[in-house]
Structure formats: structure tokens, C-alpha cells
Amino acid sequence: MGERVRERGPIPVFGGAYDRDRIYGLNHPLKEGDEVRLGGLKFKIIDIPGHTLGHIAYYGHGVVFCGDTLFVGGCGRLFEGTAEQMVSSLNKLKNLPDETKVYCMHEYTQKNLEFALILEPGNKALQEKYRDVVEKRKRGESTVPSTIGEEKSYNPFLRCGSVEEFAKIRALKDKF
What we know:
By secondary structure, this protein is an alpha+beta fold. It has helices spanning 2-8, 83-94, 109-119, 124-138, 148-154, 163-175, and strands at residues 14-16, 28-30, 35-38, 41-47, 56-60, 63-65, 70-71, 74-75, 101-103, 146-147. It has two domains: 1-30, no CATH class; 31-175, Ribonuclease Z/Hydroxyacylglutathione hydrolase-like (Metallo-beta-lactamase, Chain A), CATH 3.60.15.
């Protein structure tokens, strides 16, 4: 890949400042509060370590692109970060307006909701979301995006009361 980049000349490569020396060609290191313009759109950077230490989110125009930190009905594994970091990052996302659309990196929704149903089998919002997801997946449709408000109603990782509770649930999910 490095040769192709060199052949084309300098191109903008954006990423978390923490990853400055880990992402080849990163020439736009970003940190909390920075702003990025893409075309006519402006996004604010939110540092969200936990899955990895350099994880960042792009927030603006009613959407958040959050990579592997928050999934529909779940969250990313702790590859480099700690439970404390992930809870702090999830709380940042949780505090965005409820109508914010959440765009995550992977389509893990059905499996995430199956796990969540074990924890909260009586959660009506969760039951309804699961039925909707099963139907969408049967039709080959994506289940992304969700919204922050929806996630608060059924995502077990946004419904934890403490870092310790988060860590217990994350450990269970890692074995699910």
C-alpha cells in the first residue's frame, strides 16, 4: 500500500493523534474538539478510546460515525483500552442528542440483540427491535443506523450503572 500512496503523491490521511506512528501516511492527526471538513460538511472529533487507544468518532449534522466503539445493541471488545476508558467513551456518545443517528463499522446487530435479550428478556423496546432486525436481515437489509435514543432503550452497554457492571457484561459477551 505504501508504494501506491507514494506513486499518487500526497493524499490526506486522517486518524486519531494517538495513532500518528501506527497508521502509515497519517498526515492529519486528530484529537478531541478538532473539526474536519469533508466537502461542505463539518464534523467535530470525539476521542473514544476503549476498543483501541486511538479510536475517534466524527460527529456532526445529526450523525456520529463511531467505528468499533458503539454498535447497534452492543459495543466493541477491549483490544487495547480498559473498561474505564470504554465506559467514559460510551458515556460521551450516550450524551449526544437522542435523535443522533449512529453509524458503526460492522453489522453485528442480530447477535448483539440476542445477547441483550438474555440479560433483559422483558425489555419491550429490545424485543421490538429484535423482531425488526430479524425481518430486515431476512430481506438482506442493513440494520444500521440506529439512534442514540434507541440505543439507550436496549443496548446493555449503555444501560450499565457502573464500570464494574460494564466489565462483567463485556466479559460475558466476549464468551457469547
